[in-house]
Specification:
By secondary structure, the chain is mostly helical. The protein has four domains: about 170 residues, no CATH class; about 130 residues, Four Helix Bundle (Hemerythrin (Met), subunit A); about 150 residues, no CATH class; about 150 residues, no CATH class. The protein contains 25 helices and no strands.
């Protein structure tokens, strides 16, 4: 029982680096609940309309949770700008409501501008999103001009609550986030031991082998997030922690390689190694026997990161979203076309609740730039909506007639939805849909027909989004995968070339910065390839994904070379050959060169690293795969 509890604890810590998801959930829940309490009191005293409460609560919830500028000052400025931006959109929508088609045209203009402004960074991404929802609330709530003043006062009061929640009740410090990120990194390391033990028990299981690869990728992403949290103003202390994290990461990868060699060992040896891994996961003193030396190295490296040096934390620089990196005009045009189609189709389904289709079409373009990414986003929203309707009906039936319990469930579900947002968009949609079901039950408006209409409108909106991305200036995932693969191979070639020159000169190469540059390129490649490798596309390898797997395997062995002192000291000519081969394949992926068969003419020197031998084999296989796959990649 204790082991199970520890495993759940590690899974929880590992899933939320820096507790960022937990903070987001708490901010959303507290902003919604506290602003609801405040606005209910104000509405009772001033006899204000319910619309003032709803719009204020929703904008407070989103404002407290989705602002993600890099500094506290920038976050505060963005949150202060929510009132004029969202409030202005709400006023515009209210005044234009009597002119139906003019209001629809202006809605499309708001969407176009909001999406186009994403190119300017996180502030404008947030403000564009909230401008859309400000306009949407005017439609959803059927506001009248006479209700604007109390509604805007309510929004201002709710945003003040959101400000207090964001910067007071659930404040974020760089030191706290770094400590949480280190805890998450350590939990992912111990989780990796469990995954390796499970795989050694059944080495023929493709699912368990994929779990090992997935955990290695998650570990690498956690290491990159840690690096982004280190302050360059304190370079010595930051370098010390970077080195410790890098050595721990290499220890895990070396252990994974050692475990892989046992996959074909006799059953008794495999099971003994699996038992050693399980014991090492929960013990501070790793057992002797199979993998004992590798486990000892890993435990020493893990202990070295338990106490980070002081004064090294900073707020992480914001990673640009795919939408910010893509052509802004193309994305804005696609989103506008999609929402225009959804507006027409949604009205055909229901002249009253057509806006659900428009929301579905709008949100599938968030963090999506290619047809495949938009499709995956649409599937996530559709699956989450259907599951949320089922869950919402079930919860509503259980709590029917208990208004206090219904209200409490709404805020609990808001917390869960925003907490899970960083893990899965589908899970967030599920719980937000459940919130909607309980809300309608609280108002006495819940019927299966209303929720069925939500499913229909959502499916229509998602379909319009996918259609627009496919027919208007489409961008394809396979093209991005090809470009990112070429970037990875170029960086790999540069690193191996530097290692080769250092080996010939008899000196050590500084590999830490180069390894992290390669890691960042690999992260971009994984992000680009996610629509081809995600959980909704499990039908197996394709011509587009086989070269991807070869490229990722190359980077894996290149990282292991960084800890292979014998290979780096041998001046092995294979280092230079592999670097030249990677460079040539990168050029071929970009279409800069022909695709001749890749040949390595130099014989391998005695004692040359098996990792280099494997890299030569992988490059040869990749060249052959490219000859077959380039037609599919184009």
């Amino acid at each position: 029982m204790r082991t199970l509890a520890l495993a759940w604890r590690d899974a929880l810590v590992a899933s939320d680096p820096g507790w960022l998801g937990l903070r987001m959930g708490l901010r959303a829940m507290l902003a919604a609940s506290l602003s609801a309490a405040l606005l209910a009191s104000l509405a009772h005293l001033a006899h204000a309309p319910t619309a003032a409460m709803f719009a204020g609560i929703m904008l407070a919830m989103m404002g407290a949770s989705v602002v993600n500028d890099t500094t506290r000052t920038a976050q505060a400025i963005t949150l202060l700008l929510v009132l004029p931006v969202a409030g202005g959109a709400l006023i515009l929508g209210t005044l234009l409501a009597p002119h139906r088609w003019v209001a629809a045209a202006v809605l499309l203009a708001v969407i176009f501008v909001g999406v186009y402004l994403r190119r300017h960074g996180p502030r404008w991404t947030t403000l564009g999103l909230l401008a859309f929802f400000g306009y949407f609330f005017s439609v959803f709530l059927h506001l009248k001009a006479a209700q604007l003043a109390p509604t805007l006062i309510g929004i201002a009061a709710a945003l003040a609550v959101a400000f207090g929640v964001r910067f007071g009740l659930v404040r974020e410090t760089a030191e706290g986030v770094l400590g949480g990120a280190l805890a998450s990194f350590g939990a992912r390391v111990t989780g990796m031991l469990g995954a390796l033990a499970s795989w050694l028990q059944r080495p023929g299981s493709l699912r368990r082998r994929r779990a090992v690869r997935r955990r290695l990728a998650l570990l690498n992403e956690a290491a990159l997030e840690l690096e982004e949290r280190l302050d360059p103003a304190n370079p010595d202390a930051a370098l010390d922690l970077r080195t410790r994290v890098f050595e721990l990461e290499l220890s895990v990868e070396a252990l994974s390689e050692s475990a892989g060699r046992l996959a074909n060992a006799p059953e008794a040896e495999r099971l003994a190694a699996a038992q050693a891994l399980r014991e090492a996961r929960w013990s501070s003193r790793p057992p002797a026997g199979p993998l004992g030396e590798a486990l000892q190295t890993l435990h020493q490296a893990l202990a070295a990161i338990r106490q980070p040096p002081q004064g090294v934390a900073r707020a992480a620089p914001a990673r640009s979203s795919p939408a910010a990196r893509g052509p802004a005009l193309r994305q804005a045009l696609q989103a506008t076309l999609a929402t225009g189609l959804a507006l027409v189709a949604g009205n055909l389904l229901s002249p009253v609740r057509w806006y659900w289709a428009v929301i579905g079409a709008f949100v599938v373009f968030s963090r999506a730039t290619t047809v495949a990414e938009t499709s995956v986003r649409a599937v996530n929203r559709a699956v989450g909506t259907v599951a949320g309707v089922v869950a919402g009906l079930g919860f509503a039936e259980v709590v029917r007639g208990h208004s206090d319990l219904e209200l409490a469930l709404i805020f609990v579900f808001i917390f869960i939805a925003y907490w899970l947002f960083r893990i899965s968009y589908a899970w967030m949609v599920l719980w937000i849909t459940a919130v909607l079901a309980i809300f309608y039950e609280l108002l006495g408006m819940l019927t299966p027909g209303v929720l069925w209409l939500r499913i229909e409108e959502t499916l229509v909106g998602c379909a319009c989004g996918v259609l627009a991305s496919a027919v208007l200036l489409p961008s394809h995932t396979r093209d991005r995968v090809r470009a990112r693969s070429a970037d990875v191979l170029d960086t790999l070639a540069a690193g191996l070339g530097r290692m080769h020159e250092a080996a010939k000169a008899g000196r050590a190469a500084d590999l830490l910065d180069l390894a992290r540059e390669l890691d960042r390129e690999v992260r971009e490649l994984r992000d680009a390839a996610r629509p081809l490798t995600g959980r909704f596309v499990r039908w197996g390898p394709s011509p587009s994904t086989r070269p991807l797997h070869a490229v990722l395997a190359l980077t894996y062995y290149a990282r292991l070379l960084a800890s292979d002192e014998d290979a780096l000291a041998s001046r092995c000519a294979a280092l230079g050959e592999v670097a030249s081969g990677a460079r040539a394949l990168a050029a071929r992926l970009r279409g800069d060169a022909a695709n001749p068969a890749l040949r390595f003419d130099s014989p391998l020197e005695p004692g040359c690293s098996p990792r280099l031998v494997r890299m030569r084999q992988l490059l040869t296989e990749l060249a052959a795969e490219l000859a077959q796959a380039l037609a599919a990649l184009r």
